Amino acid sequence: MGIGLVDPILPAIAESLEATPTQTELLFTSYLLVTGIAMLGTSWVSSRIGAKKTLVIGLGIVVLFAAAAGMAQDVQSVIGFRAGWGLGNALFISTALATIVGAAAGGSGSAIILYEAALGLGIAIGPLLGGLLGTLSWRGPFFGTAVLMAIGLIAILVFLTDGADAAGRRPERTRLSAPVRALRQPALAVLAAAALFYNIGFFVLLAYSPFPLGFDAIGLGLTFFGWGVALAITSVFVAPLLTARMPRTRVLWIALPLLAVDLAVAGLVIDDPGALVVCIVAGGLVLGVLNTVLTECVMEATDLQRSVASSAYSAVRFLGGAVAPPAAAELARLISPEAPYFAAAGSVIVALAVVVAGHRALRRVDDAAPEPAAVEAEAITVGEGA
């Protein structure tokens, strides 16, 4: 639910704390930058202290920094607290799926279905709840997140046991340098570079759009509720159907140009809020496919442990997400309000060019069999972990 939490209250934060749009967009930058850097070490941490402790520490950090953000008196403090929040986010998303599957009493299949359903609902409901709480105060969504994460933390402490999985295996310890070394693999380097430029498009649509829309918190919450529903549907249902019928790289060759066109159209219709809403929701449909398929490709691209490969990939792609929001605000200030969308469309075209140029290194991802349910769910988790 926290993925789209901040979106509906960005304009309110800017107004209440007398912050510029660029300063306000740094709430995404600090969060994503720390999440990306921390992802390089999460597999090392969880393989040594166990999944339960990793989850508890991650949620505890989120509770602490979300509450602190709600009590902040200036935008610089909120930016700093969002950075701490990003550390907790990295620890949580790196171990969530494996923990749920390992703890499931009714088999992994039913656990994964419930997990995907919960993730999809959270992506959709988060912005709506943020909008509702944002009508009370810009501080409301931050305190709401702290309360929800505290409930999750208590549930983990009470109900979850730690240790070996159902087969009696304990996590294989990984080296701290493993994710960085993983980027030497050509296929993983191609996918990480493509994801960096793709994520610029993702976060321009997500983080910049609240400003040109000009809606209040409820209006923004409803808009991004529609975005979240669209993204969840294609992540969980459409992406698996597409990859079962065509090579994964072909799905990328189709979806990336569609996203670029959607962003360019958003720039053209920026003065029409209704048309811009349609572009945002349509973008969610494409983003859901791209997030899942890109992460599936990462998991099949090498013989590395999936946790190591996804950590390396996520660290690079989050850099694009960290740069995009403040850069979009500056482009809007220096050039024109539509310039960020056109720049984002160009960035997505660069991502396409990287995938096409690196197609030889990606042969393995097309030759692999369709993903089992657990891998599909992990792809959704890592893809939507922002």
UniProtKB/TrEMBL annotation:
Membrane topology of the entry: Multi-pass membrane protein
Key word Transmembrane present: yes
Cellular compartments annotated: Cell membrane
Bilayer-spanning residue ranges: 26-47, 54-72, 84-105, 112-136, 142-167, 188-211, 217-239, 251-269, 275-294, 315-335, 341-358
InterPro entries associated with the record: MFS, MFS_dom, MFS_trans_sf, Tet-R_TetA/multi-R_MdtG-like, YfmO-like
Domain called Major facilitator superfamily (MFS) profile: residue spans: 1-363
PROSITE patterns membership: MFS
Gene3D superfamilies recorded: MFS general substrate transporter like domains (1.20.1250.20)
Molecular function per GO: transmembrane transporter activity
Protein name: MFS transporter
